[in-house]
Amino acid sequence: MSQYPIILIPVGIERAKLALPPAPIPPDPPQQPGTKPQKINNTLIAVETAVAIPTIPIVSQLTSIPGWLLFLAVAGVIAGHVWDQITTYPQRKQKHDHEVESYPKKLKDYEIKKHQHQEEVKASQSPERVAEFRYKLLLQILSQTVPHDGSGSGARRGEAEALFGNHLSRYFPSKIHKGLTLKIPDFDYPYTPDFAYIDKELNLYIDIEIDEPYVYPTGAPTHFVGAWKDSNRNRFFLAKQWIVIRFSEEQVICYPQSCCKTIVQVIAQVTENNSILNQFASFTDLQLMKQWTEAEAIDMAAKRVRNNYPCQNKGLHDNSLIETQQQISLALKPNSRAQSRGATRARHRALNLSISPPTNNTTLSSLVSCPYCSAKVKTTKFELHKTNKCPKRPLL
């Protein structure tokens, strides 16, 4: 069962996360000394004689060479071997004696090298050495990432994208990019990530997507389980060594800070750098959310769930709500005794007006629901209310 957030990591990066440094080559053990050399190798002479005696008549018959002549030739060869053994015996004995004498030292040196090798193997598999090896391998793999090839995309952006973009820019300054394009082979239009996280130092690219259950104007289902366009898009970015993170629209509207924490958790997991999680320690982890099927998306469109996510009635469920409420409290609290109660009441009235219910002479078709406080606001005043007056708007 698919769940949001959907996190897809390229195969090369996954391998780097699991790679281990190559183990050092073990030393070769010393060769033991052979048997003590003989002045004359009687066994060798006996074998040569035993082979020559029956062979001489056969060769003589086949070649018409007299047997006695062949016998003299074979005897001369055997005699030469005997003479060679006698003359080389001093050198062979000296070499053997040296091998016997030096073997204990070679064996001791081998034991030392063997112990050193064991220590090197242990050190090579230490957490620090493994992390260093994986990081270097990761940099090598990320160097092969294919970047975007254009910018200034004219792709339409929804309200959820605009609001979530403010949070992304806040927590990832200078690393969030919009409107980037990547050309699709044999296709007229490029892909445009909703947001692209780019760390130029690491050459790390992340495609951040916001999935809605249906197209707002038409109600057509989109981004459902098994949607071929999403699968093709994911494969496209993964092949270019981009990480893909997909959030549901409800998650980015209701839990924007937790979504940002998820992005950092993915980066920390890939780079094995947990220190970057410190500034997000106070944020709650993003809860998993089941991805809808096509049939469920159609049902969601019929119920217009995008107009009424649960958090829009209860308030945002992460720290952005707390910060907003604190900001409102500070705005309502007099800064000094010199401030009049009338001024305070005026501020109260200003806030209350922004969330007041529609009057009787206002038709429902001219009202929209605020994604933060769920207040019904005139279409002409929606942007002003959402950006300036809404008491539950996120702080940017």
Brief description of this entry?
The chain has 396 residues and is of the alpha+beta class. The chain has helices at residues 11-18, 42-63, 67-124, 127-142, 159-171, 228-239, 249-254, 256-271, 294-303, 310-314, 319-332, 341-354, 382-389; strands at 3-4, 6-8, 176-177, 195-199, 204-211, 243-248, 289-290, 367-369, 376-378. A 5-stranded mixed beta sheet has the order 2-6-5-4-3, sandwiched between helices. It has a two-stranded antiparallel ribbon with strand order 1-7. The chain has a two-stranded antiparallel ribbon with strand order 8-9.
Give an overview of the whole structure.
By secondary structure, the protein is α+β, with helices and mostly antiparallel strands. Helix content is 51%, strand content 9%. It has helices spanning 11-18, 42-63, 67-124, 127-142, 159-171, 228-239, 249-254, 256-271, 294-303, 310-314, 319-332, 341-354, 382-389; strands at residues 3-4, 6-8, 176-177, 195-199, 204-211, 243-248, 289-290, 367-369, 376-378. It has a five-stranded mixed β-sheet with strand order 2-6-5-4-3, sandwiched between helices. A hairpin with a 4-residue loop joins strand 4 and strand 5 (204-211). Helix 1 (11-18) runs antiparallel to helix 4 and helix 2 packs across helix 3. The two termini are 35 Å apart. The relative contact order is 0.11.
